[in-house]
Design goal:
Distance between the termini: 22 Å
Number of strands: 2
Order of helices and strands: HHHHEEHHHHHHHHHH
Helix content: 55-70%
Radius of gyration: 18 Å
Oligomer: single chain
Bound molecules: geranylgeranyl diphosphate
Number of helices: 14
Strand content: under 5%
């Protein structure tokens, strides 16, 4: 198993899948909307969430390509959240994934609509998954909605906005970040298991893995805002200073320790699966990521 090679294969597959989906719509008159959507969707990015969905599907014993509609849907929801998060009414950022933010190129109205369309199309793509049991489809769509919506990612963003003016407790920061970042990572792992026809035990283990990885990922994200550069990250750094981040709560050194311990917690959850070398190596590599 070569970590980079496997990541490249998963990334290419989801990117080709998304490209093909939108190519089929290229004769539609609302070309500007499709351009705006694809501008952000095809701007690179690590494709972590699709990679997780593919790998959990494979570890559960089915062809990993079965998870493609779910992997694509989650990446579309992730991209919509980034477009909306960058808007002037949110974080007001100029750069993302190494290029101008969506609203800087297409204007605020079109950026809002590109995000809306990505979110809505995501459910259509997810619903096109070919699973043997119809009840698994319903479960998957329900999980996706819960993780992305008012009790998940959007709920976390709201709690974050509501708490801007006050200092949060450790529990509050954990809750907000679990929702904002952790929920979509959980959806990726959970939908991978569903696509792979995994057992309840495998589903629970995937959720435990996601909980650990999500926190480690967000803590590292907060660290990168302090120790990273715009050239590495493709977006402005130092923008979270003064916000309720993990670095503010714990300081850099403790954050580094916590990234390691949440990653170990995630890795421990994988013991019930066979052939976990790729996922363990991926989780470890994320502890030192610079992007
Ligand atoms: C509805 C107006 C409106 C806004 C919603 C939902 C939302 C805004 C924001 C979600 C919160 C959010 C953007 C959390 C950030 C999570 C995070 C760590 C993003 C970076 O993920 P990476 O590093 O990015 O995987 P790449 O670019 O590699 O895909």
């Amino acid at each position: 198993m070569n970590l980079e090679e496997q990541c490249r294969e998963y990334r290419k597959y989801v990117e080709d899948y998304l490209k093909k989906h939108y190519e089929a719509l290229s004769d539609q008159p609302q070309k500007l909307l499709f351009d705006a959507m694809q501008y952000s969707l095809m701007a690179g990015g690590k494709r972590l969430r699709p990679i997780l969905a593919f790998e959990f599907c494979r570890m559960c014993g089915r062809d990993w390509k079965k998870a493609a509609p779910f992997a694509a849907a989650i990446e579309m929801i992730h991209t919509y959240s980034l477009i909306h998060d960058d808007l002037p009414c949110m974080d007001n950022d100029d750069y993302r994934r190494g290029r101008l933010t969506n609203h800087k190129v297409y204007g605020e109205g079109m950026a809002v609509l590109a995000g809306d369309a990505l979110l809505t199309d995501a459910f259509g793509i997810a619903a096109s998954a070919d699973l043997p049991k119809p009840e698994d489809m319903a479960t998957a769509i329900g999980v996706l909605s819960e993780c992305a919506g008012s009790v998940g990612m959007v709920g976390g963003q709201v709690l974050d906005i509501m708490s801007e003016e006050r200092e949060l407790t450790e529990q509050e920061v954990l809750d907000i970040q679990n929702r904002k970042t952790g929920c979509l990572i959980s959806a990726a792992c959970a939908l991978g298991v569903i696509a792979g026809g995994g057992s309840e035990k495998q589903y629970d283990a995937a959720c435990q893995f996601a909980a650990g990885l999500g926190l480690a990922f967000q803590i590292r994200d907060d660290m990168l805002d302090v120790i990273g550069t715009q050239a590495e990250l493709g977006k402005a750094t130092g923008v979270d200073t003064g916000k309720n981040t993990f670095v503010k709560l714990y300081g850099l050194k403790r954050c580094e320790e916590l990234v390691a311990s949440y990653t170990n917690y995630a890795i421990d959850a994988l013991n019930i699966f066979e052939d976990t070398a790729f996922l363990k190596a991926l989780a470890k590599s994320l502890t030192e990521r610079r992007v």
